[in-house]
Automatic annotation (TrEMBL):
Molecular chaperone. Has ATPase activity. NCBIfam families: PRK05218.1. This is Chaperone protein HtpG. It comes from Muricoccus nepalensis. It is found in: Cytoplasm. Homodimer. InterPro entries: HATPase_C_sf (IPR036890), Heat_shock_protein_90_CS (IPR019805), HSP90_C (IPR037196), Hsp90_fam (IPR001404), Hsp90_N (IPR020575), Ribosomal_Su5_D2-typ_SF (IPR020568). GO terms for molecular function: ATP binding; ATP hydrolysis activity; ATP-dependent protein folding chaperone; unfolded protein binding. GO terms for cellular component: cytoplasm.
């Protein structure tokens, strides 16, 4: 065996990350043990599952995570009989972290209250590095299950690490921490056991602490979800939730039930009380853990649809074989029935909690964007999801539902009107709303990117069609405006074709509109095509071709349009005026003029003419 020691530099700012972990989280040092023990237990779980296929040896009888303090050597060892790591995996898993993850961790660390900082370790996948809070040198020896060779990783946390060949009799991983002078209390078995009971009591893998040559149990190892609800305290639920999700907040909702009948399973699910620092928008798969007879099988069974991926938890069943494969999971009708039952139970819980508006608003602000994906991904649940939606509105403060909107609809109003854009503050000031406000017609303001997609898929609510105010020709004539709210309209029958001719192939149509009050023009999308926000998103993605030309709508009551109508009657040229109107409409919607220099020239000339 080669004795060569390879020296490597840490990748992507790990040195900076280590400095942050060691110093910024110094007062929360004990969480290093939580992280290392949880990682070890996960490694054992992964080996158990892989061994079911016969591809690798099974976990030895009584296999446990061992925590071994050595006062004389001043070392603390965490050893597991888990899946182990290859040389390449040691270098990748322990030597690099994404640069973007480092920046996000740094920012979140600066913003998080001191009491929330322990949760950052698990959420950003940097739990291993917390070892350097108590150790000035860390050595990891690992042997991959099914492989003969072992490798050692070592570092003092100062910017580099070494890799060298090693020996290990059995597969698994041992982490040896050479403790700092002020970390001697982590060599006391009583102290170690108290930390494990606090953070890892519900881990089903046995954890032991060595004391006077004997391995003593340190965790209860009971599957909490199998206990009667009457025997579980709120504190126990919270501790398990925090362990499961590597978080530190309180769950917003806890769902614990046993299903009996056609299928038998027990579920313990949590809806988080805060949005994770690592956004769920980026992770597209549900990670609810599937257990069979208490043994962890996988967190990739898709037990909940992706639009409920913010839910954490465990589903345990007796109705699947222990040696179930991932391929079998996708095909078995048992799992399909469990998925339906679990999804329906979560939806039911959300409906119940939605009745408390203030409490539900906290959930919506955290996970509403993700929930809306279900309107697009799961049409079979769209009616249920529609009841759970909340929106900002042009008419009321706070959040409102579709049902509340319908209850406020004006006499003669035929549709639910929505306006999609990038920010609710900008949407509230949009000229697109002027005619609606004049008639007291409410418009829902949609500012998430997903809002450009789902309205067309949902189509209607309580038999009322959902219409974008920027799509097609919105007719408000059936909704009466208060007396004096609108000026008398000018005759623009001569003006409209002249504007269309001047703009030629830049717009598909020029027409009069009654949905403007204080603005002379506004853009709309052609009937049947995507609305303006969808067109913007497609353009940003480089897929703007085929969206169709916009419609220019003019306000026949505005003084500028009145003046142009008079000018049109005298056959005066309107090319510059038409171009200026189109650019004004674009700027109002947050877009740039077609030719910024020409736009500035026209504005300056018009301003000078008005002063003359």
């Amino acid at each position: 065996m080669s004795e060569t020691v390879e020296r490597h530099e840490f990748g992507a700012e790990v040195g900076r990350l280590l400095d942050l972990v060691v110093h910024a989280l110094y007062s929360d040092r004990e969480i290093f043990l939580r992280e290392l023990v949880a990682n070890a237990a996960d490694a054992v779980d992964r080996r158990r599952f892989e061994a079911l296929t016969g591809a690798i040896p099974a976990v030895p009888e009584g296999g446990a995570v061992r925590v071994v303090p050595d006062k004389e050597a001043r070392t603390l060892t965490i050893a597991d009989p888990g899946i182990g790591m290859t040389k390449a995996e040691l270098a990748t898993n322990l030597g690099t972290i994404a640069r973007s993850g480092t920046r996000a961790f740094t920012q979140s660390l600066a913003e998080a209250p001191a009491g929330d900082r322990p949760s950052l370790i698990g959420q950003f996948g940097v739990g291993f590095y917390s070892a350097f809070m108590v150790a000035d040198r860390v050595e990891v020896t690992s042997r991959k299950a099914g492989a003969e060779e072992a490798w050692s990783w070592a570092s003092e946390g100062r910017g580099d690490f070494t890799l060298s060949a090693a020996t290990r009799e059995e597969p698994g991983t041992s982490i040896v921490l050479h403790l700092k002078e002020d970390a001697a209390d982590y060599l006391e078995p009583f102290r170690l056991k108290s930390i494990i009971r606090k953070w890892a009591d519900h881990i089903t893998i046995p954890i032991t602490v060595a004391r006077d040559g004997t391995d003593e149990p340190a965790n209860e190892g009971t599957a909490l979800w199998r206990k009667p609800k009457s025997d579980i305290t709120p504190e126990s639920y919270t501790e398990f939730y925090r362990h499961l999700g590597h978080v530190f907040d309180e769950p917003w909702a806890t769902l614990h039930w046993t299903a009996e009948g056609a299928i038998d399973f027990t579920a313990l699910l949590f809806i988080p009380g805060m949005k994770p620092f690592e956004a769920v928008e980026g992770e597209r798969e549900s990670r609810v853990r599937l257990h069979v007879r208490r043994m962890f099988i996988t967190d990739e069974a898709g037990l909940l649809p992706n639009w409920l991926r913010f839910v954490h938890g465990v589903v345990d069943t007796e109705d699947l074989p222990l040696n179930v494969s991932r391929e079998m999971l996708q095909a078995t009708p048992v799992l399909a029935r469990i998925r339906r039952a679990v999804t329906n139970r979560v939806i039911s819980e959300l409906k119940t909690r939605a009745k408390e508006a203030e409490d539900y608003a906290k959930f919506w602000e955290n996970f509403g964007t993700v929930l809306k994906e279900g309107l697009f991904d799961s049409p079979e649940h769209s009616k249920d999801i529609a009841q759970l939606l909340r929106f900002r509105s042009s008419a009321v403060e706070g959040w409102t539902s579709l049902a509340d909107y319908v209850s406020r609809m004006k006499e003669g109003q035929e549709a639910i009107y929505v306006l999609a854009g990038d920010a609710p503050e900008a949407l509230a000031k949009s000229p697109q709303l002027e005619g609606f406000r004049a008639r007291g017609v409410e418009v829902l303001l949609l500012s998430d990117q997903i809002d450009a997609f789902w309205p067309e898929r949902l189509d209607r609510f309580e038999e009322k069609p959902i219409r974008s105010v920027t799509q097609g020709n919105v007719d408000l004539s059936k909704v009466a405006a208060p007396e004096g709210a609108l000026e008398e309209a000018a005759d623009v029958s001569r003006l409209l074709p002249l504007l269309k001719d001047a703009l030629k192939d830049q717009v598909s149509e020029v027409r009069a509109t009654d949905r403007l009050v204080g603005s002379p023009v506004v853009l709309a999308a052609a009937e049947g095509g995507p609305d303006l926000q969808m067109q913007r998103l497609l353009a940003r993605a480089g897929r703007g071709l085929g969206a169709g030309l916009p419609v220019l709508e003019v306000n026949p009551r505005h003084p500028l349009v009145r003046a142009l109508a008079t000018k049109a009657a005298g056959d005066a040229p309107l090319e510059d005026a038409a171009g200026l109107l189109l650019d004004l409409a674009r700027v109002q919607d947050g877009d740039s003029p077609r030719d910024p220099a020409a736009f500035a020239r026209r504005v300056a000339e018009s301003f000078a003419a008005s002063l003359g």
